[in-house]
Amino acid sequence: MHDPAPVLSLRDVVAALEALYPLESAADWDRVGLVAGDLDQPVRRILFALDPTLAVIDEAREWGADLLVTHHPLLLRGVHSVATSSAKGASVTALVQGGVALWVGHTNADVADPGVSTVLADALGLTDQRPLSVEGSRAAGRVGELVAAVSLAEFADTVAAALPDTAGGIRVSGDPEGLVRTVAVMGGSGDDRFDDVRASGADVYVTADLRHHPVLEAREEARGGRPYLVDAGHWATESLWLTSGRDRLLSALGEAPGATRVETRVSTIRTEPWTFVVGANAERADRAAPEPGGVS
């Protein structure tokens, strides 16, 4: 009989994660890496989730996870107390009491290749991919080509089909009949990248958290033309990365499909904060006002 494979330690798993998503590639303001846990503790079950919410931590504990890997940080901003009277304090306490370690891959996962935006670009079927922008050694976002040009309305349907459903749906700014082929994407918040999008020559930009003033200014600059804009939701555009991150980690750990040394699971808890919308009507919005920069 063969001896069973040695149990993985948290140290082993963290080393693999940080080889895939180096901490030094994260933005200066970010807080990534190991947040809680003993590097010598064994790891037999790993849960992946976008956000370390109380519900997700409960899921990790109930499943018996030894490690929770999330994209978004738990302690991005400084805290002065971890008392359970606050959600952050209750989260830290629940992790420690449950013996669940927490590791965060945020902007270091955004800029990895493949990273958050690569996975999004792949899901939309983009070919000939390249970085949207490069800052020093950090590449952000992706630009690629559709196999054939399609209308903006058809493309929006493609985005909706590729991403998980959300309460807010897909918001689009542009001519529904306008043709698009070159696509820029950035998972998560991306309305600070409009200059890069214009420079890339993209026909349409898919991202999330688009705010009124930056969008209005961008559409004014476009004079009603390209690049068109698609807001597909923060949670939806980033959640696809979780399966990729899990698969890459298992490969880095030398875990073949069906291996028993470590079990993994992607959380099914939707951490999108929105629950429903009222009064959304695309046709009414089209009739209410002309496209910014267009002719009324």
TrEMBL record:
Keywords: Hydrolase, Metal-binding. The keyword Nucleotide-binding does not apply. SUPFAM superfamilies: NIF3 (NGG1p interacting factor 3)-like. GO terms for molecular function: hydrolase activity; metal ion binding. Homohexamer. A divalent metal cation binds at residues 71-72, 110, 234, 238. GO terms for cellular component: cytoplasm. This is GTP cyclohydrolase 1 type 2 homolog. Pfam families: DUF34_NIF3. InterPro entries: DUF34/NIF3, DUF34/NIF3_sf. Belongs to the GTP cyclohydrolase I type 2/NIF3 family.
